[in-house]
């Protein structure tokens, strides 16, 4: 008999960025980060995991194509989940698997992203969160609170996708990473007026992965040291308070400033890393000019390790004004691929 579980996990967008590790194999960060988890209807990964005594090895397919599971990150997740596995009894199917049996049984994994992989829209976040969650259900893992520490070992940002709403990843102090986990700050319903818009500027694969980029920043950027030690701790407190109070002005200022500082760190890295392109810069300009002319932030923007813009508006009315502006000001430049606004207006 075969046992199968399907799960879905949304991606998350950091408003205070994670950039830099203090431990590469456990994936422990050099600062706390805060993110907003998107609505799973839009940017998500769907993963089916199956177990059968007939499977001879662990295998995985991503968007229909087989990929290797030999990498350390997949191996860590599989190993940790197997260690936590419980008994599974399905009388209808005549299945009885003891917790320790999982060490010998193999799984097949099929995963689909409904958005471009590695275009800087945090596909690894949704991917590993979904994988770990689906496996935990298949293997009847009891300790759900440990899942974020396991997903973290797949991809740092993945630990935040196990919760909805507003999430903080506490960097922790422990050398083994036990306290480097995600914590929900507020549920999605806490700030239901907030709208997120995403402009897919390019769906091409980024040139430098986050993993490589942050390694090079840690090695060469003094600005990153300054940021992680002296700037982010203050911003985390301010951001937590802004979220608690639904204070859009503070939330917007911090979000844009932190994105800009992250990209400044990329420029401060040697050799410099460019994730944003000309279209990204024009989107920033367009928003900054609007905010300036109104005297207070109408909307904010943030960019991860790629050129796509994620924008926040305080409500649907302002979101639709933003959309109008962007569409009006954006006759695409030659060579730019401003293909679509994937999300018209998305309430979280
Ligand atoms: C810019 O989580 O993709 O999106 O831990 O090496 O897998 P690894 O990196 P990843 O980095 C995300 C970086 C970021 C900022 C963020 O999401 O906080």
From TrEMBL:
GO biological process terms on file: isopentenyl diphosphate biosynthetic process, mevalonate pathway; sterol biosynthetic process
This protein's UniProt keywords: ATP-binding, Lipid biosynthesis, Lipid metabolism, Lyase, Nucleotide-binding, Steroid biosynthesis, Steroid metabolism, Sterol biosynthesis, Sterol metabolism
Gene Ontology CC, one term: cytosol
A GO molecular-function descriptor: diphosphomevalonate decarboxylase activity
Recorded catalytic activity of this chain's protein: (R)-5-diphosphomevalonate + ATP = isopentenyl diphosphate + ADP + phosphate + CO2
Lyase in keyword set: yes
Domain Mvd1 C-terminal: 196-348
Positions of the Diphosphomevalonate decarboxylase-like N-terminal domain: 9-182
Listed EC numbers: 4.1.1.33
The family this protein is said to belong to: Belongs to the diphosphomevalonate decarboxylase family.
Function summary: Performs the first committed step in the biosynthesis of isoprene-containing compounds such as sterols and terpenoids.
Protein name as it appears in the record: Diphosphomevalonate decarboxylase
Segment of the intact protein contained: 8 to 355 of 419
